[in-house]
## 1
Amino acid sequence: MYAGGMQLREIMTAGVVTAEEGTEVREIARMMRDRGIGSVIVCDPEGAPAAMITDRDVAVRVAADDLSLDVTAGEHASRPLISGQPDMDLEEAAALMVQHRIRRLPVLEDDRLAGIVTLDDIAVRTGNLEVAQRMTAEVIEGALPEFYFHERG
């Protein structure tokens, strides 16, 4: 059990940074640096949330492949956009994050971006560091390649 009874609306951050699909990754990286964030929601031409680009996407999908930073966010964002709803129970949201191995969960209400919940939000706003540590371990364990565990014994 993660934090019974709490809903996402109680812990989500409402001010979410967004960008259009055609925004250059260079600009996305600047936005992340200047605002001290690790992700930007990428919106389709109608303004609907369509994907998420993270600092890891920039490092692994762009920089590690020696791609130019003028490629677009839409080309390198993570899809599909896994999301929750404001009235979703935190335990259900936590299970969704672990299942999909994600550290950030956009919160949509009527297909519009209402906020975002991160693993840090869960730790800080619930006051339950143990829950956040357990979730982080589960997310990381599922994201690491199999050889990582064999080499470390």
Note: Strands lie at 18-20, 39-43, 49-54, 104-109, 112-118.
## 2
Amino acid sequence: MIELRTLRQFLAVAEELHFGRAAERLHMTQPPLTQAIQKLEASLGAALFERTSRSVALSPAGQALLPLALALLKQADALAATVQAAARGGRGRLRLGFVSTVGYGELPRWLRLFREDFADIELSLREATLDVQLREFAQGELDAGFIIHTPGAHPAGFERLKISSEAMLLALSADDVLAGSAKVDAAAVLGQPLVIFPREIAPSLFDALLVFYRQHGREPNIVQEAIQMQTIVNLVSAGIGLAWVPASVMAFQRAGVVYKPLAEAAPVCETSLIWRADAAPTVLRFVEHVERLLVR
């Protein structure tokens, strides 16, 4: 095994090309330095310097060792700072899941600022619905995730930061007779064909809508299911049916679609950031980052 101290001694001689000056630079006498270089040469099985009574020069073996020694010493010098940064959450990896609706809000800005503030954290993004995120959490493939749910229905066993709370809106075809209304009465729309997400990707929200329909004496007339909110809105544009969407989806403007609030209280959708209690420091740095931006 070659000690770092020995590599530093080799580097001093290689840069000074003079044992006396190298020894002075290392705050030692020349004989121990000469012995250390000789032991290094013996362990490597090659002469590292070509010596004469008047000069010292790197041998071919010494020239080959020089860049390797420089790289090793640079890594060694950075070791403590790297480990300390990782312990503080300033270096490492963050695997982040998010549902599509979050992308219509502040998420792009949060990610841009996070990359600027924590350039040494490798950020891996994964668009995934709640069911997929929970599976990947269980498999250790996800560190944190943005999800949607109804109030109080966030998954158990996770830490949580509430991001937003918003009423659901109706996405209607621009050809719908109600498209020009400022607000829409529930009785006027609950019988229309419905485009909706599958229950497994947002069960609490699906169930809240089902309860809303039944409270008004109706059953939802589901004609099409789609996972992505953008796809749902596109299907509304095609005249397949109406859809319930979080208010933030209004940022997605699609020709042939209008967004209308309900005249009465509508189901509410919450967005949360979730993570495990034993999450790595990088996750906590991201949570703190988002929390700080939320209060601005």
Note: The chain has a mean pLDDT of 90.
## 3
Amino acid sequence: MDTSDLNTKLIDYIDGKLDEAEKAVWEQKIKDNPEVAREYHQLRELMGLMERRIVQPPDKRLETGFLSMLEDEIIEMENTLEDMEKNIRKEKVKVYGLKLSGPLGIAASVVLVLIGTLIGMFVIKSGQDGQISSLKKELDATKAMVINSLEGQSSPSQRIAGVNASFKLKEADDEIITVLINTMKNDNNINVRLAAIEALYQFSSEERVKDAFVHALARQKEPVIQLTLINILVNLKENRAIDHMQKIIEDKQTIKSVKDEAQLGVYKLS
């Protein structure tokens, strides 16, 4: 059981909210477990302090000088909370579920909520900053790997690995798109070009990527690449590709399966 659950149960025990069976269980835990006993005594002391402050009869001046007393109470609670914070750092005690009522309790609640909110915002922001920094480093590393593998003198398998790494990028990046387009157009290995086409498809909402697919269909002569591009352009409903598909159909060098796919593509896009 983590500290927050432990404290919640102990507070319920102190408040008398547990049934007889649960009460007996926690009495035994307090008796047998030194850690539980320590948490129990600290919570009871803190809650007792708050209860004593709450039940004190309010001063008559409260009716006419509430704002003044509220300010004094806040200052006093800030000092108390500062001491509590030091103890919490030492003992790692978490306090949950304190019940406050009345004007003095409202003042204490305001301070507690404000301090808790500020601490929470700081912790969340620190965590978010750390996550953002970590993600940025990872994306920068991925980007560098893609670019270096495709622009350097690497082997086809290394270039394919670089292309595949681009799938980790969730958003379009100008440099990555540029290097993938160049790879699709110019790489001397058909498998690398195919991999680049598939990688570019994840960025197909970008107009320059659609343009690149259309232009590639006019240049690429390998049947497997032609088939891949035809299917992609049909899926993208890119009717600018119709003329290029028609030329593929009319080309005597085009194999039958590609002609059939191009004819189907023209039909779907027309």
Note: The first helix runs from residue 3 to 14.
